[in-house]
């Protein structure tokens, strides 16, 4: 089937015209981006759950696809299904802080204590906002801050825990991925300069101006029924068990020593400090209880089209149609590559950090100006100003790492390849 959108002809997909009837895949796509549909179809053929993909190019939505199953019982993924998206959430939280910086409420090189005085305890008085955003503050060690993962459900407890914590290394001397603490650090700065609740600001400053259909960090009760259920294979569950964690922590320390003998400076044991607070194996990021509170580093509930539209705005210098959320100057500052400092902790390689966003890897190369954030389980969203491209993928099953997996890279690669070979903007599809 075909339909006309924005003066161009698009292909529509539905349960009545699928080539592979055993695969549930719906939505619509511009013919130039048919490779994205083919990649998603193959992904759904392999996965037990579902997914949604959205792509913007030159300010226009060119792919909006969804398929598979939203739960283990086989309920079909629908057009308005949202998925818990783990660290993909960090890109949204970072964008919100940049909006505040654009208004002059936050300055990147100012000490955090200017906005959050209690933060300065225990040698943290000189840590800057930039160091927080670039993962250089030395405050990733959540396992040493709290006694149980459930504490992440209590914002005030997390803020107090951070205030009473000393950096695990001298700030600015090492880059260490703040896997779970990042959101509370960024979120509390935002709350201090606005006097407003973080979850409400996500709605008032990003979702409502862009008319997004699903972008929540701290989800209202009425929206919870739209959430896909997380489906993880047994192998993923076993990876989080405490007995395995103790074994893996010891193995990581040994591997770090071996890598050091080879001249590779790493600190793999820090992974557990950053990502494995006690009780994490039983913490359900996708439960209604978890989704209703804000954990801005890891519990966003999104549609792919909302993420893609936000990144389309960033790809276009902070403006989408008649809505401007950021100045071009602030977008440039926020997406400038930061200089790595010292060795890498938590993630043992350079993620090409910007201010809250990392670099992008696809199966078709690394877009030099690409930036965004991927997450555990396979979700991800990013923008590339050079190709005027924005891509988002949400999923509810898989074994992705804390910074994405090959599904994200494949979808991104298909979209990037299509954008590079696409007809000139003035050409209409016959």
Main attributes?
single chain; 430 residues; alpha+beta; eight-stranded antiparallel β-sheet; three-stranded antiparallel β-sheet; 14 helices; disordered C terminus
Could you please describe the fold and organization of this structure?
There is one protein chain. The chain has 430 residues and is of the alpha+beta class. The chain has a domain at 2-84 and 300-322 and 359-421. Helix content is 32%, strand content 15%. It has an eight-stranded antiparallel β-sheet, with helices on both faces. A three-stranded antiparallel β-sheet has the order 6-10-8. A three-stranded parallel β-sheet has the order 7-13-9. It starts with a strand and ends in a 9-residue tail after the last helix.
Strand tally is 16
Q: Helicity, in percent?
A: 25-40%
Oligomerization: single chain
Mean pLDDT: 89
Output the number of helix runs: 14
The helix/strand order is EEEHEEEHHHHEHHEHHEHHEHEEHEEEEH
List low-confidence stretches. 15-21, 235-248, 426-430
How would a textbook summarize the main sheet?
Answer: 8 strands, antiparallel
Strand order of the largest sheet: 1-2-3-5-4-16-15-14
Structural class: alpha+beta
The end-to-end span amounts to: 14 Å
Radius of gyration: 21 Å
Query: What does the overall shape look like?
Result: globular
Strand composition percent: 5-15%
Q: Could you provide a short overview of the structure?
A:
With 430 residues, the chain is of the alpha+beta class.
How would you summarize the topology of this molecule?
Blueprint: E1 2-5, E2 8-13, E3 25-29, H1 34-46, E4 50-57, E5 60-68, E6 83-84, H2 89-102, H3 129-133, H4 142-145, H5 155-163, E7 175-176, H6 182-194, H7 198-207, E8 215-216, H8 234-239, H9 242-261, E9 266-267, H10 270-275, H11 288-291, E10 301-302, H12 304-315, E11 319-320, E12 323-324, H13 328-334, E13 344-345, E14 371-374, E15 380-384, E16 389-395, H14 406-421
Parallel strand pairs: 7-13, 9-13
Antiparallel strand pairs: 1-2, 2-3, 3-5, 4-5, 4-16, 6-10, 8-10, 11-12, 14-15, 15-16
Helix pairs in contact: 1-14, 2-6, 2-7
């Amino acid at each position: 089937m075909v339909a006309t959108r924005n003066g161009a002809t698009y292909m529509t997909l539905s349960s009545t015209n699928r080539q592979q009837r055993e695969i549930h895949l719906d939505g619509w796509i511009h013919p130039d981006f048919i490779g994205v549909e083919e990649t998603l179809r193959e992904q759904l053929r392999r996965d037990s759950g579902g997914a949604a993909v959205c792509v913007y190019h030159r300010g226009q939505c060119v792919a909006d696809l969804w398929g598979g199953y939203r739960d283990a019982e086989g309920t079909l993924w629908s057009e308005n299904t949202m998925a818990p998206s783990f660290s993909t959430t960090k890109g949204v939280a970072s964008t919100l802080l940049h909006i505040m910086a654009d208004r002059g409420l936050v300055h990147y090189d100012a000490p955090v204590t200017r906005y959050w005085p209690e933060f300065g305890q225990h040698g943290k008085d000189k840590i800057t906002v930039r160091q927080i955003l670039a993962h250089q503050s030395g405050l990733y060690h959540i396992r040493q801050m709290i006694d149980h993962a459930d504490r992440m459900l209590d914002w005030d407890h997390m803020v107090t825990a951070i205030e009473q914590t000393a950096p695990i290394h001298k700030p600015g001397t090492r880059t260490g991925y703040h896997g779970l603490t990042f959101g509370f650090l960024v979120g509390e700065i935002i709350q201090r300069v606005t006097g407003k609740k973080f979850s409400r600001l996500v709605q008032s400053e990003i979702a409502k101006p862009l008319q997004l259909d699903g972008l929540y960090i701290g989800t209202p009760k009425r929206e919870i029924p739209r959430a896909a259920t997380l489906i993880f294979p047994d192998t993923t569950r076993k990876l989080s068990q405490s007995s395995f964690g103790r074994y893996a922590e010891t193995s990581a320390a040994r591997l770090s020593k071996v890598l050091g003998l080879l001249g590779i400076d790493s600190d793999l044991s820090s992974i557990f400090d950053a990502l494995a607070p006690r009780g994490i194996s039983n913490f359900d990021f996708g439960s209604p209880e978890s989704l209703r509170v804000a954990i801005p580093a890891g519990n966003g509930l999104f549609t792919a089209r909302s993420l893609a539209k936000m990144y389309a705005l960033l790809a276009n210098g902070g403006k989408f149609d008649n809505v401007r959320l950021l100045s071009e100057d602030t977008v440039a500052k926020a997406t400038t590559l930061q200089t790595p400092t010292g060795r890498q902790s938590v993630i043992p390689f350079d993620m090409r950090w910007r201010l809250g966003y990392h670099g992008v890897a696809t199966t078709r190369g690394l877009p030099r100006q690409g930036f965004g954030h991927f997450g555990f389980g396979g979700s991800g969203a990013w923008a590339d100003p050079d190709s005027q491209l924005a891509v988002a993928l949400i999923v509810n099953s898989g074994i992705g790492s804390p910074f994405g997996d090959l599904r994200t890279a494949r979808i991104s690669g298909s979209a990037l390849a299509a954008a590079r070979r696409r007809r000139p903007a003035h050409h209409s599809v016959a």
